[in-house]
């Protein structure tokens, strides 16, 4: 019966039904192009007022990225988190323009890009700093020029003022990057990460975090000895063997004992919550 009914349906109508069926959940490729209501719903203000102005800037930042960045940056501002925004890898400024849209009074957008310099992944149609500025300003007509800071250099050569504070950093190029965060009191935190193309990594740095490290000390004959434990040249008041809690970041761990010389030297370690390295100091009797 179903077979007979199918025969009665004109071919053109069948094609139309197949076309719309093809747009079901299992076939989402057409969404890469579609902007019709049936596929993506009604465009909201983010598409109409913001993304519509970014879309003509050459680049890779898509509407999903735009939504996520807008949410995080707006949420930070709602929570009164203040600071400049840094982007490494702006290209023509598609993502930069969106970030600049989320600036609050007194905040700046700081950009580092190779521009016309050679990099491992050479891009076609290299931007100039002037292109970038004009794209940012086209999307953000109200932004003053001195709130856009451009560093034309490779990220390895990027030097920022020690008192520069960022609330959000976007690094948009795959490869290896060393991130260094300097706290005015608690010192330096550094990590080298490899970011794959299209990866997003979240790297919170909390200088209040502590890392536990076990410290031991032995004499030249392998006998355990009590030695005073020092962190960043200050006594902890603890003696080996002991597990101590040390603030994350770049730390110098040492030990000392009267009448003894430290044979294997102090350790400069980058501590974060993923490192838990036992340290063994060796002493010999001073002559
Ligand atoms: C993927 S594109 C950035 C796309 C852009 N964020 C967007 O939303 O369209 C990467 C950019 O980073 C730049 N770049 C690559 N390696 C770099 C490096 N080591 N230092 C600075 N910029 C670099 C490239 O020249 C290019 O402009």
Please, could you describe this protein's structure?
There is one protein chain. By secondary structure, the protein is α/β, with parallel strands linked by helices. The chain has 2 domains: 45-173, Vaccinia Virus protein VP39 (Rossmann fold, 3-Layer(aba) Sandwich), CATH 3.40.50.150; 210-285, Carboxypeptidase-like, regulatory domain (Immunoglobulin-like), CATH 2.60.40.1120. The protein is 23% helix and 31% strand. The chain has helices at 2-8, 11-21, 37-40, 45-54, 63-78, 94-101, 129-139; strands at 84-88, 109-113, 148-152, 166-171, 175-183, 187-195, 210-219, 228-231, 234-239, 242-247, 249-256, 260-262, 267-271, 279-285. The strands form 4 sheets. The protein has a 4-stranded parallel beta sheet, covered by helices on one side. α7 links the parallel β2 (109-113) and β3. α6 (94-101) crosses α7 (129-139). The longest helix has 16 residues, at 63-78. It is elongated and about 105 Å long. The N and C termini lie far apart (106 Å). The model has no long low-confidence stretch (mean pLDDT 88). S-adenosylmethionine binds at residues 59-61, 88-91, 94-95, 112-114, 119, 121, 123, 154-155, 172-173. The site of S-adenosylmethionine (SAM) has 19 residues, from α6 and β2.
